[in-house]
Amino acid sequence: FEFAKQAKSIMPDCPVVLLSAFSKEIFNRIKRHDRSDIDYFFNWNNSTDLIIAINKLIEDKMNAPHDILEEGVRAILLVEDSVRYYSTYLPLLYKLVLQQNAIAIRDALNEKQQLLRKRARPKVLMATCYDEAVELYKRYSTNIIGVISDIGFVLHKGDPSSSEKLDAGIDLCRLIRKENPTMPFLMQSSQESMSSLAKQLKVGFVVKSSKTLTQEVSEYIEREFGF
Q: Quick one: DSSP state of residue 164?
């Protein structure tokens, strides 16, 4: 934390990422500190795919204002507050996005179109609380091609996990669907019972612990996100 503070004082715009093996003791210590100088927390899962995903996430955040608002590049909004889960899920999501984009590139008619499609792969914008998700949606709503969201998460950045609102994802879905009834929305939950609620809202649903999670998410993205 001291290093992060000094790094930010020297280069305020330089992203600082804390990468740690997961243990309750470590994360309880993290919660007790001032975390304002650390941009992201990730759980090391022994996969170099995570390092690539972190780089891409930071690049996407930096480039989003120009690429999305000025150049019309599309974006996917991911809402998840579990460090353990998004550390595993984010590399998977980037892999799927790159695969889908590669197919779109192959379908291009000429070399120029292929280059344009390669540069215009959808950005991934990640929110870890309700306020952040709403802010990102309102800022980039015209260029978001789909939302992937947990059902329960905290409302404000820095809130303790114990204050998680169990249906925050439902509130977010209703807010977005009220403004854009056709926006693709994929809900994720560790509770299979939530699938009935997703059905009522007419949105996609996957169980986080599903052995076929990758396939289900891939099929939903291919079918609904309009690559």
A: -
Write b or e for each residue in 70-89: b if 16 or more Cβ atoms lie within 10 A of its Cβ, otherwise e: eeebbbbbbbbbbbeebbbb
| pLDDT per residue as tens digits for the range 59-99 | 999 999 999 999 899 999 999 998 888 998 899 899 888 88
Helices (H), the chain: 2-10, 24-31, 48-69, 83-106, 111-119, 130-140, 168-179, 195-201, 213-224
Give 130-183 pLDDT, tens digit per residue: 999 999 999 999 999 999 999 999 999 878 778 889 999 999 999 999 999 999
- Candidates 6, 82, 80; CA nearest to 37 is 6
Residue 44 near residue 50 (C-beta atoms within 8 A): yes
pLDDT at 127: 96
Rounded CA-CA distance 158/96 in Å is 29
**Residue where the block lists tokens 């007419």:** 202
Q: Which residues contact 194 (CB under 8 A, 6 or more apart)?
A: 151, 187, 205
Q: What is the DSSP letter of 207?
A: E
Structure-token match 């000429």, residue found: 110
On the CB side of 53, CA atoms within 13 Å amount to: 26
